[in-house]
Write a structure and sequence with these properties.
Layout: H1 41-49, E1 56-60, H2 73-81, H3 91-100, H4 112-122, E2 126-131, H5 139-146, E3 150-157, E4 163-164, E5 171-182, E6 185-191, E7 199-202, H6 203-210, E8 242-247
Antiparallel strand pairs: 1-5, 2-8, 3-4, 3-5, 3-8, 5-6, 6-7
Protein name: Actin maturation protease
GO molecular function, one term: aminopeptidase activity
Family: Belongs to the ACTMAP family.
Length: 249
């Protein structure tokens, strides 16, 4: 069993306007005070694999994996998030809507704003909130997770799907469904469209990868992807941004 008390942010995290309070354990919502069951054995293995000391699982949402077909990672992540809704939305539905709105051609989504619009339309029991300046204020992300939100975040995906630095040439979307605190700092639990397995990554690596998203890869753009005004690294793009999905309660 894990201690589910909300941990204080690591000392290296800067102070931010939306910074999580360091003493909020008594005010955490019910979904943040969980006890892992045998069905979450995968989390146990991930904690052991990363040798996380004094691990505290602050939040975890059970979401079934969906594998992507083509460059649909963002739409797949949003479809997985909709499993918390009474009427889950399929990737096919999201793809059709995204095409009608001019957000995509082949399933790619290179804008957090585009994703927020789709979330507002198809997840009416969740409030989409665009998180910005994640490199300066990572606490906005941990605060959202610790208070029951899932987070859609773009990053560069390495050969093993872990965060890497390719300037956006390997841009991918993940759905953050859990938060772990340990002596080594924060780790996040994630689902994405290229694996059936739950992923566990250091939060600092994910945020660094998110902050390096500058441009789309030329090889991947050959099919004619939709890029928002200002580009991948612009104000409507991917860099330094994520989408929190807060449940209405």
């Amino acid at each position: 069993m894990y201690n589910t008390t909300m941990p204080a942010p690591p000392t290296q995290a800067p102070a931010c306007k939306k910074k999580a309070e360091t003493n909020e354990s008594e005010n955490l919502p019910p979904w943040a005070k969980i006890t892992l069951t045998s069905s979450e054995a995968e989390i146990e293995k991930l904690i052991a694999r990363h040798a996380l000391k004094d691990a505290e699982v602050t939040y975890f949402s059970q979401v079934e994996p969906i594998l992507q077909d083509g460059p649909q990672c963002g739409l797949v992540a949003l479809s997985m998030a909709s499993q918390e809704y009474t009427k889950p939305v399929s990737v096919t539905q999201l793809l059709a809507e995204a095409r009608v709105r001019g957000f995509t051609q082949h399933g790619e989504v290179y804008s957090v704003d585009f994703m927020g619009t789709l979330a507002a339309e198809y997840l009416p029991d969740h409030r989409p909130d665009v998180l910005v300046d994640l490199q300066t204020c990572p606490d906005t992300l941990t605060h959202a997770l610790a208070h029951g939100a899932m987070v859609l975040i773009p990053y560069d995906s390495d050969f093993n799907h872990a965060p890497c630095l390719k300037r956006g040439h390997k841009a991918h979307w993940a759905l953050l469904v859990g938060l772990i605190s340990s002596r080594q700092g924060y780790y996040v639990l994630a689902r994405h469209g290229k694996s059936r397995h739950l992923a566990c990554w250091p939060l600092r690596d994910l945020i660094e990868s998110n902050g390096n998203l500058e441009e789309e890869g030329t090889a991947r753009h050959a099919g004619g992807y939709v890029i928002p005004k200002g580009g991948v690294g612009g104000q409507r793009g991917l860099r330094g941004r994520a989408l929190a999905l807060h449940p209405y309660v």
